[in-house]
TrEMBL record:
Pfam families referenced in this protein's UniProt entry, alphabetically: UDPG_MGDP_dh (PF00984), UDPG_MGDP_dh_C (PF03720), UDPG_MGDP_dh_N (PF03721)
Organism: Candidatus Dojkabacteria bacterium
Keyword NAD assigned: yes
UniProt-recorded Gene Ontology molecular function terms: NAD binding; oxidoreductase activity, acting on the CH-CH group of donors, NAD or NADP as acceptor; oxidoreductase activity, acting on the CH-OH group of donors, NAD or NADP as acceptor
Name of the protein in question: Nucleotide sugar dehydrogenase
Gene Ontology BP term (one): polysaccharide biosynthetic process
Length: 441
């Protein structure tokens, strides 16, 4: 494959599509980024990195690619006709009311691609989708709009991303990936393409298996986090420290040559689960067969993880009673709007349902998050006259807060509710705070 003669179009330039575009451009391909937002397109063409969280190496890569000049962004979907490969990386949410996938963005993207793609193109879906979507949604729309047949006139595959904020380039380069081909030839074409940017293993399979693998691995994480969260609730009831419990559970080491190193791996409990993937991928996994299988574990795990922001409010209520105040009289600083530490990604942030509980109770509040423009500010200044700090996101910045300094600007009997085990319980209590943390009250 001669990279300089091959053109790749990336549909969607968010947390997945943009770093993928940068890596392929750096590998020598001509890359066209397609995004429906004109203002975003303009900023990208000016060399702005749209991802503002801590992403090692991304700023340097963007600068390098812009100097090369083989990436450009556009809102013109007709540009798809120039592409030898089209990679789709658009959001695939689920509806809040029934937890079913809503594919408006994906379907619109597929219609635009189908109407403009050329014969012989390879279309790759990186978006996480429910099992059966390649067969029942992706392939029919592309064939209908293009008047071509998958596997005969164009190649079709899904290669689900495996990304986490804060590790985008690392995850793309070094994680193994699954390539699901509509035909074996399609999988091979995509594998050969991705070898240019991925050093991990590329495993070929069929579309349905790749769909199940991606939704399944995120569901696995969701269930494991739910277990950790329920353990935290149990530890609170037992007046134990879940973080000490977790450490000792995970310290189960190999004792003979025939046993594996890591026998246990309890995940982190916390204030809630956010991001584009985990809160909805469990629903994607069970979507097509929910009525047949009647799954119980997976929906229960979703319920537990969705409950944790509500539990943060319960902890706040408990602390308020302890200091003899009324919840409606509080003035609270909420630390963290992004869903993950040191990231600007606020999709499905657990802070939102927590804020809704504050509003229902008539609590006055402010939000701080250095990675979100709307919520930037001097923490010490914002804390003046506050009754409580509620930590929802474990940004590194919050680890450096000096307890005595913030105590001096807050109201009497100040409260800390710690959703990410950032604060030292004994030190903050010694300083004069009332402290309650998830799994450690």
């Amino acid at each position: 494959m001669n990279n300089q003669n091959e053109t790749i179009a990336i549909c969607g330039l968010g947390y997945v599509g943009y770093p993928v575009a940068m890596l392929f451009a750096d590998a020598g391909f001509n890359v066209i980024g397609v995004d429906i937002l004109e203002e975003r397109v303009q900023r990208l063409n000016e060399g702005e990195n749209p991802i503002k969280g801590q992403e090692p190496g991304l700023d340097e890569l963007v600068e390098k690619v812009i100097k090369k000049g083989n990436f450009r962004a556009t809102a013109d979907v007709k540009e798809y006709c120039k592409a030898d490969f089209i990679i789709v990386a658009v959001q695939t949410p689920v509806a809040e009311e029934n937890k079913k996938p809503t594919y408006e963005n994906l379907k619109a993207a597929l219609r635009s691609i189908g109407q403009n793609m050329k014969k012989g193109v390879t279309v790759v879906i990186e978006s996480t989708i429910a099992p059966g979507t390649m067969e029942h949604v992706v392939k029919p729309i592309l064939e209908e709009e293009s008047k071509m047949i998958a596997g005969k006139d164009f190649y079709l595959a899904n290669c689900p991303e495996r990304l986490m904020p804060g590790h985008l380039l690392e995850n793309i380069r070094y994680y193994n990936r699954v390539v699901g081909g509509w035909t074996p030839e399609s999988a091979t074409k995509v594998k050969e393409l991705y070898k240019h940017v991925i050093q991990g293993e590329l495993e070929e399979t069929d579309c349905i298996t790749a769909e199940i693998v991606k939704a399944g691995e995120n569901t696995y994480r969701d269930v494991q986090i739910a277990f950790a969260n329920e353990m935290a609730l149990l530890c609170e009831a037992y007046k134990a420290n879940v973080w000490e419990v977790r450490k000792l559970i995970n310290n189960c080491k190999k004792v003979t040559e025939t046993r594996p190193e890591a026998l246990r791996q309890m995940h982190f409990p916390g204030a809630g689960v956010g991001g584009h993937c985990i809160p909805k991928d469990s629903w994607l996994l069970i979507h097509e067969v929910r009525d047949i299988v009647n799954p119980k574990l997976i929906p229960t795990a979703r319920y537990i993880n969705d409950f944790m922001p509500i539990h943060m409010f319960e902890l706040l209520e408990s602390a308020v009673k302890e200091v003899g105040k009324e919840i409606k009289d509080l003035d609270v600083l909420v630390l963290g709007w992004a869903y993950d530490a040191n990231s600007d990604d606020d999709r499905n942030t657990p802070t939102k349902p927590f804020i809704e509980k504050l509003e229902e109770a008539g609590v006055k509040y402010e939000i701080h998050d250095s990675f979100i423009d709307e919520y930037k500010g001097n923490i010490k200044e914002i804390l003046k006259g506050k009754d409580a700090i509620v930590l929802m996101t474990g940004h590194d910045e919050y680890k450096g807060l000096k307890y005595e300094e913030i105590l001096g600007v807050m109201n009497e009997k100040p409260i800390i509710i710690d959703g990410r085990n950032i604060f030292d319980k004994e030190k903050v209590r010694k300083a004069g705070f009332v402290y309650k943390g998830v799994g450690n009250i």
